[in-house]
């Protein structure tokens, strides 16, 4: 603490001491914390700031989690668990850029489940959904580590295979 700051603290504390003496003369309610030391004020502010920072940290964590959930819902197909068409479009642009720079192999595969409408029409949408999940699982399991499969739309799937 500098000399000027120390002098201020001493003066402030002296004023508070005198104020407390006058409180009793004028029958002021002593339960009211009307004058406290500057150190106590600083400590109260530090405590308040600490509580505020904990609250902000908690809120920041919540926002970060919500952001990840939103990002996941925007880029993933909820039925199959695969990446969706939006994710495909994003990845395709970066894969094409990479391919043009490095001249590596790049393959695009499109898969359409034939006669899928008849599955939904005759067996119902629940069975159709199960078929789509099974197709997605099979495609995902058969890809190399450099490939990603996407649900392109309805019963259509696409895969981006890099380095092949």
Structure write-up:
The chain is an alpha+beta fold. The chain has two domains: 71 residues, no CATH class; 87 residues, Alpha-Beta Plaits (2-Layer Sandwich), CATH 3.30.70. Helices cover 64% and strands 13% of the residues. It is built from five helices and three strands, in the order H-H-H-E-H-H-E-E. A three-stranded antiparallel β-sheet has the order 1-3-2, sandwiched between helices. The radius of gyration is 34 Å and the shape is elongated. The N and C termini lie far apart (68 Å). The model has no long low-confidence stretch (mean pLDDT 87).
Provide key terms for this protein.
single chain, 164 residues, alpha+beta, Alpha-Beta Plaits, 3-stranded antiparallel sheet, 5 helices, 64% helix, 13% strand, elongated
In CATH terms, what is the fold-level topology of the largest domain? Alpha-Beta Plaits
* SS-derived structural category: alpha+beta
CATH homology superfamily of the largest domain: Reverse transcriptase/Diguanylate cyclase domain
Mean pLDDT: 87
**The level-1 CATH class of the largest domain:** Alpha Beta
Strand order of the largest sheet: 1-3-2
Radius of gyration: 34 Å
Which range best describes the helical content: under 10%, 10-25%, 25-40%, 40-55%, 55-70% or over 70%?
55-70%
């Amino acid at each position: 603490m500098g000399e000027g700051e120390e002098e201020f603290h001493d003066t402030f504390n002296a004023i508070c001491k005198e104020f407390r003496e006058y409180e009793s003369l004028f029958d002021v309610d002593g339960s009211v914390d009307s004058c406290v030391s500057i150190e106590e004020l600083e400590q109260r502010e530090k405590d308040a700031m600490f509580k505020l920072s904990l609250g902000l940290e908690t809120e920041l964590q919540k926002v970060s989690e919500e952001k990840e959930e939103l990002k996941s819902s925007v880029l993933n197909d909820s039925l199959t668990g695969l990446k969706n068409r939006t994710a495909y479009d994003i990845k395709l642009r970066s894969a094409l850029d990479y391919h043009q720079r490095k001249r590596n192999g790049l393959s695009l595969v499109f898969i359409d489940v034939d006669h899928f409408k008849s599955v939904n029409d005759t067996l119902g949408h629940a069975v159709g959904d199960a078929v789509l999940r099974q197709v997605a699982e099979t495609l995902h399991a058969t890809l190399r580590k450099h490939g990603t499969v996407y649900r392109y739309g309805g019963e259509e799937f696409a895969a981006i295979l890099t380095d092949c």
